[in-house]
Design a protein that fits this description.
This protein is α/β, with parallel strands linked by helices. The protein is 24% helix and 19% strand. The longest helix is centred in the first third of the chain and has 18 residues, at 143-160.
């Protein structure tokens, strides 16, 4: 018998009762995966499979990658699932509700394929822009972005779809080079303040499981590291679910005693009875099983099971390989997500007159010269299936790759939109010049790829030189040039200053072409913001560690803070719309006092088109306290999206700050501690464009709620010393 749909039982009591009835053999079945031969799952088994205990009503656990949908591991799966936009593409939306809807839709496909657990979300904060898996990470370069988006993923996947999540990769797994041997050296404040917040937020949202990573942390392999698993994760964050290993990440006999509860995929036999019976006491074995039961039952993954719910190794092959989980509604939603995730970085006016219109959106009837093979590059999914690390401009390689034979290119989308297009499907300047003759606007495409297992070797686009040549030709022919960039992470754009328009998309799955076309033609309005920094040059970016001992010397100045005091091409949080917004202080009488601090902002659309804005709140700690010298000067604390506002329409947004926003991690106390003094607040369009500012005093021994007044910012006080280039 499975858990009731209303989930009304006490999960810990239920788990304890089940464990008390299990035989020793059944307990060992629960803590170790089955179904792998070498490095591939056997026919009919999922990427992760646990047999369960049928006689006690404990279902199987059926896990599948990955972060952008149901991983297509076999040819038979192609076309049965949606290739969704990547987590980094969703991070550009800065929209928790949209992330929840995305997770719920993905979760429905997992359920349709018979799976009840997703090996996601990945929430590591980017340390180096070269990271091979950066496109998988929902946090981008900032812990607060991940902290506010990760719970939405958990709620969508678990509460709405009934699929358990495994938050990964814990911990300090920020690069692919040497990932199995790398020793990440990071002090407690760096871990707790910069890299842990997205994990902690997912755990508070009820995440069923956490996946421990391949690397070492402060000298101990992550899956055998009691300091981070027992002390930080289970005690410090109060995690009551289970820790499962990344595939073959357990390297010694200490993992179970040090906090790992499940060995995956299991064919290494690291958690077999001969290995563990003398390594862990019976009470620890019982605890491991109880944590697994609690995590799975509490997530809803074992509730509302269909009558034909399959058992791994018996009858799952039909669902796993042939059940069609995608749908026209999901494809339409993927298209919407692709457009919502497209970041408009530049949109200059065309013509010398003061009333000249921006180059985008492209008006109906305009002749478009579409340039470059990347605009029409069609993935060969059957070829890509031959190598698990094969990547494209639409998906990254590795365990999060979801291939679809229905992928639509920009060239196809524009053609199906009946746009007047002259397409030069190569990267030859002579062909481009011919296509540009008589065109009203040129659109040139360029991209870069990345994959799990290796980091990127550079931050340049594959067609970098070609794009520069096209932009130069555009000036000669007086044809404005719009560049569409497909990239798996931060990238250098040396010609961006000369481009007329610039649209950037992180891997956006099968609807990439439609998403780009919808923005270019004005069917969708851009509103996305960068979750990463676009540096001026590769020399400004932090490379991955090449030595085994990887010291996080930057401490709390990781992510976008590494560029503090330096000019950048486009800063963290930046993104344009097709309209303009003005901010003014809101009516303080409307402010609720349910939080420690509240701020009211009126956002008005002062442009000529409808659009929505993402308003960001940054906080600066008191500068007079010695401990604060370690803190970055400005930190993201909140963000809110407006509804779509018509020209002239306004909306009031209420920001609420809590006590945790005014704390730092105290290593001596192993807890968060309050900071006292004057805090300053900035609200604006990006990390380097703050419009409204205010201040409040946090006094020791004084408990009160404040409505913080706002006034226009002083550039000297609130902007970084180096601005956008």
């Amino acid at each position: 018998m499975t858990l009731p749909p209303d989930m009304s039982i006490n999960h810990k009591d239920w788990a304890a009762s089940i464990v008390s009835k299990m035989t020793e053999e059944e307990k060992y079945r629960m803590i170790m995966g089955v179904g792998f031969a070498g490095f591939k799952a056997k026919k009919g088994y999922y990427i992760g499979s646990v047999l369960g205990v049928p006689r006690l009503g404990v279902p199987c656990i059926k896990m599948q990658d990955g972060c952008a949908g149901f991983r297509t591991t076999d040819e038979e799966m192609l076309g049965t699932v949606t290739s969704w936009p990547s987590p980094l593409s969703l991070a550009t939306t800065w929209d928790a509700e949209l992330v929840e809807d995305w997770a719920a839709a993905m979760g429905d496909e997992f359920r349709a394929k018979g799976a009840n657990m997703i090996l996601a979300p990945a929430v590591n904060v980017h340390r180096s822009p070269y990271g091979g898996r950066n496109a998988e990470y929902l946090s981008g370069e900032d812990p607060t972005l991940g902290r506010l988006l990760a719970p939405a993923f958990v709620h969508g996947m678990q509460d709405r779809a009934g699929v358990a999540v495994a938050v990964k990769h814990f911990a300090m797994n920020e690069q692919e080079y040497g990932r199995s041997s790398m020793n990440s050296i990071a002090e407690a404040r760096t871990r707790w303040e910069h890299y842990y917040p997205p994990f902690e937020a997912a755990i508070r949202a009820g995440a069923a499981a956490v996946m421990c990573s391949y690397n070492k942390v402060n000298g101990k392999q992550a899956c055998s590291n009691g300091d981070i698993l027992n002390d930080d994760l289970k005690q410090g964050m109060g995690f009551s679910g289970f820790v499962l290993s990344d595939w073959w990440a357990i390297r010694d006999d200490e993992a179970a005693a040090e906090g790992t509860d499940m060995d995956m995929p299991g064919n290494d036999k690291m958690f077999s009875k001969p290995k563990l019976e003398n390594a862990v006491p019976e009470l620890r074995l019982d605890e491991m099983v109880q944590r697994i039961l609690v995590g799975m039952s509490r997530s809803g993954a074992w509730s509302n099971l269909p009558a034909d719910d399959c058992r791994v190794g018996c009858n799952c092959a039909e669902k796993l390989y042939h059940a069609v989980a995608t749908s026209p509604a999901h494809v339409d939603f993927a298209r919407k997500l692709a457009a919502r995730g497209a970041v408009l970085l530049k949109n200059d006016a065309v013509g010398p007159d003061s009333d000249s219109q921006p180059v985008l959106p492209i008006a109906a009837g305009k002749k478009i010269a579409l340039l470059g093979g990347a605009c029409g590059w069609k993935p060969d999914v059957h070829h890509e299936m031959k190598s698990w690390t094969e990547a494209s401009y639409y998906t990254i390689g590795g365990t999060s790759r979801v291939l679809s034979p229905e992928t639509v290119t920009l060239a196809e989308a524009l053609k199906q939109s009946n746009a007047d297009v002259e397409f030069s499907n190569n990267d030859f300047v002579t062909s481009a010049r011919k296509a540009m003759a008589g065109a009203d606007v040129a659109v040139v495409c360029a991209g870069a790829t990345s994959t799990e297992s290796v980091d990127r070797t550079h931050l340049r686009l594959d067609q970098d030189a070609f794009v520069g040549q096209v932009i130069l030709m555009g000036k000669q022919l007086k044809v404005p040039v719009v560049v569409v960039v497909y990239t798996p992470g931060a990238v250098v754009l040396p010609w961006s200053g000369d481009a007329t328009g610039l649209l950037l998309m992180f891997p956006s799955g099968q609807a990439t072409g439609w998403g780009a076309a919808d923005i270019l033609l004005g069917r969708a309005r851009p509103s996305a913001k960068l979750p990463v920094t676009i540096p001026l040059s590769e020399e400004d970016a932090l490379p991955p560690c090449k030595q085994e001992k990887c010291e996080y010397k930057e401490k709390l100045f990781g992510g976008w803070h590494m560029y503090d005091g330096r000019s950048v091409a486009f800063p963290f949080g930046f993104g344009l719309t097709y309209t303009k917004f003005e901010y003014s202080p809101g009516d303080m009488s409307d402010v609720s006092e349910s939080a420690s601090r509240t701020l009211s902002v009126e956002v008005r659309n002062v442009g000529d088109a409808a659009g929505s804005d993402i308003v960001q709140l940054y906080l600066r700690y008191p500068s007079t306290i010695p401990e604060i010298a370690q803190e970055p000067p400005t930190q993201l604390r909140r963000f809110l999206r407006t509804s779509e506002l018509q020209p002239g329409e306004a909306q009031t947004l209420i920001f609420k700050l809590g006590a945790r926003d005014e704390m730092i991690w105290d290593p001596s106390m192993r807890s968060w501690t309050m900071v006292y003094g004057e805090f300053t607040v900035g609200i604006g369009h990006s990390s380097r464009e703050l419009r409204l500012c205010g201040a409040f005093n946090n006094e020791r021994g004084v408990v009160k709620t404040d409505a913080v007044p706002l006034t226009p910012c002083s550039t000297r006080l609130y902007l970084p010393s180096a601005d956008v280039a």
